[in-house]
Amino acid sequence: MTKPxxxxxxWVLIVATLAGILWIATKLAQAGNTMAVVIAGLVGMGILxxxxxxxxxxxxYLVPGLxxxxxxxxxxxxxxxxxxxxxxxxxxxxxxxxxxxxxxxQSVREVPGTPRYKMSVAIAEGGDPxxxxxxxLLTKPDGSTYVGDKxxxxxxxxxxxxxxxxGKITKAPxxxxxxxxxxxxxxxxxxxxxxxxxxxxxxKPVGLSEAFEGKATVTYDASADKLTDAGTTPPTVYxxxxxKWVNVADPTQSFPQGWKxxxxxxxxSRIFTxxxxxxxFLSIFIWNIAFAxxxxxxxxxxxxxxxxxxxxxxxxxxxIYRSLLILPYALPGFVTALVWKGMFNQDYGIINQTLNxxxxxxxxxxxxxxxxxxxxxxLGFPYMFIVCTGALQSIPQDVRExxxxxxxxxxxxxxxxxxxxxxxxxxxxxxxxxxxxFNNFGLIYLLTKGGPFNGADTxxxxxxxxxxxxxRLAFSGSAPNYGFAAAVSVIIFLLVALMSIPGFRRTxxxxxxx
Amino acid sequence: MHxxxxxxxxxxxxxxxxxxxxxxxxxxxxxxxxxxxxxxAATTTGVPETPSGTAAPVRDANVDLVIWTDADxxxxxxxxxxxxxxxxxxxxxxxxxxxxxxxxxxxxxxGKGPDVIVGAHDxxxxxxxxxxxxxxxxxxxxxxxxxxKAIEATKFNGQSYxxxxxxxxxxxxxxxxxxxxxxxxxDELVATGEKLVKEGKAKQVLSQFVSKVGNAxxxxxxxxxxxxxxxxxxxxxxxxxxxxxxxxxxxxxxxxDVLAELGKxxxxxxxxxxxxxxxxxxxxxxxxxxxxxxxVAKAKEAGINYGIxxxxxxxxxxxxxxxxxxxxxxxxxxxxxxxxxxxFVTNYIPRKDVxxxxxxxxxxxxxxxxxxxxxxxxxxxxxxxxxxxxxGSPMPNIPAMxxxxxxxxxxxxxxxxxxxxxxxxxxAAAKEITANIxxx
Lengths: 514, 440
Description:
The complex is a heterodimer of chains A (514) and B (440). With 514 residues, chain A is of the alpha+beta class. Chain A has 17 helices and 15 strands. Helices cover 56% and strands 13% of the residues of chain A. In chain A, strand 4 and strand 5 form a beta hairpin. The mean pLDDT of chain A is 86. Chain B folds into 2 domains: 209 residues, D-Maltodextrin-Binding Protein, domain 2 (3-Layer(aba) Sandwich), CATH 3.40.190; 195 residues, 3-Layer(aba) Sandwich (D-Maltodextrin-Binding Protein, domain 2), CATH 3.40.190. Chain B contains 18 helices and 14 strands. Chain B starts with a helix and ends with a helix. The N terminus of chain B is likely disordered. The interface between A and B is large, with 95 and 88 residues.
């Protein structure tokens, strides 16, 4: 390749990357995230500095990897960690101010005995539909017409007023009736309108053609930081407690809308102090490790045995057998898991029916665990089979022959020659398989959903993995609590990280065999 | 080496975090079951925008009104949305959401939610708790045109939050070829069924969704057949009281004892779940099935000569009273087009033709009295479903109900499986539910 062409390609790529970053930055700016825009800018400048100059050659190779690692690995970890120190979850999604606004807005009730008005949204004639003060043109059920604005309700002389058959005013002298689209564009102003009435309520629009007289029963006293609901007799007072508005007189009552706040390490201390969670966490953790180890062992052993079998030069038709064996791997795992779930059914499943037994596979802890391991063996052995076949074929024939000449029998050859060489090749894959199974969410979720659940605690299932447990905490179960689930995720992350370190040390040792 | 180890650890850790971040499941409520049951019959061709995969739809910024609904109802909603658009000179977009409940919450949180959603009434407490829905003030004369229980279901803490369009509940489906007249009592049902099994005409008495983890929605009628039995006590103002859990009152335990007895007789089994419930009835293995309108299409397809009857009554108690589920239109509290959204929901959904069109896609009894009367006159199934639910009460829409599904469901499964006695197990469930509510 000629030099100018290479240079041109280089600059095209740099410009394209910068344009991409600019596009992301504009999106971030639209979302109002200033900090992220600044960071995007810095990243763009960094890329320009690294690639446009001849200096810092190692960085040229490292930057893409680093950027993606920060974006897709470091950032989620940090974000989860920061979330884990909050009470973020159902009922605690927004700020305290928003909870107050929302509670007051939702407390508006129709004042009993007041009429419903037919309504049109209008502005004073000659005003700008986008900015002019809105007025409501109202028709009472008896046909009398009014104009309502901030100052109150005034009668509208009937002369020159045109109405539809249901009484909605379409034309009134001195006013311009807004179209649906114009009125809709002022939705924010419309929801703020309340034409004051003598009894302290306000006439508020419902949609674009009706209005009612409503009154908010809840008021907020900012100085005392208390909400008062006048809708009850006597009025109920609510004060903030545990990120919720709690009834002062009766602490079991509270408004459902709470707010998000920082709660420090409370989520972590809950994991370690709540006895159900602690004991549950421990049993889940033990099963999780057992599941991952057993899954890797069983699939590897079966896969390897079959691979050894099919590696024998005397066997004919290997191609057919091999393709058949890969089938379970080729089918989507979701389908397979669901089919197995059906087969494990105690009454209608093919397994119990053929074997003429009545094992409650999915209803007992031991049965569920066995069912999961069996299904995972079916799903996982073809992978190990492929990997082992590849590795076996790369072991030179002369090494085996040398072993035979030295007088080793078949088993001895396998144990002392083939296995060590095989493990060098598949060792890292076994570790990866362990890590994958450690978080094998799909299998558990499709087969047992973590169940069966024992006795009086449905938060902890006997076939739960940490990941399915965290998922249930965050997204289903009693009250979705992202903050707590984030804390559990952080702990899982630390556990997996700690377990991986010795594993990779061991891999290094294996590599030294070569 | 350390770097690599940490890198790999980070990969797996992030996978864990990603998994816990991407999902969006909510407790399986019967309304979900219903939607899943009917989805096959509906087509999604035509105007409504179909999302790829299960991702949430992306809000179109240039549209005046955005409505989210599931695939089944999208066509009917689209038709009237178009009419509304033409009448008011605006543009309306109906988008299909695969999991409206979760996607609406998440999208609204980041300011990308729709203006109107179609959903079940039992989402209400959670939606209010998360500040995602706005009150909808129907005038009293319009509200009076609806079934009172449907209007009741759209209220939370005395405030009204939407306009209902359909009511659904479970009932007893029976195979007319095997059972000419539906049984009035559970004893009669069991006797009839057992006779058929003995004669070799059926393999089991009843098909009812129980599953290994239990199903609170289907188990509730056994408790409600007794006067003081149920899940939550009722407050003086008619709302459910989250502080009074009654799953272990003596009357509720009586219902639990019935579950235990039926479990012992193999009438109820934890091996029947959503995957085989319909199949058992549709292959004539079971002459009876307790299910809802969503099962009708499949039974029809299988050529079953089915009948629909109210749930039977239990000895020592009254009739089993099912939960009512109400389908309704909500307006988002963060709606960008609040005025049009309110206008559409309050002025269009209470119309008879709209309610009839929505009936056609789900076959659930309409919530508007006038529309129901018209449909019931020509469709005996609808009348039968409605009558099966006449005594039912709306499913609790308070957020505390989320704490009930798991523990109560599991308790009923354990009782049916004979793992524990009714009293002991329901006591434990009550304790867990109370503790969960206190935590939430």
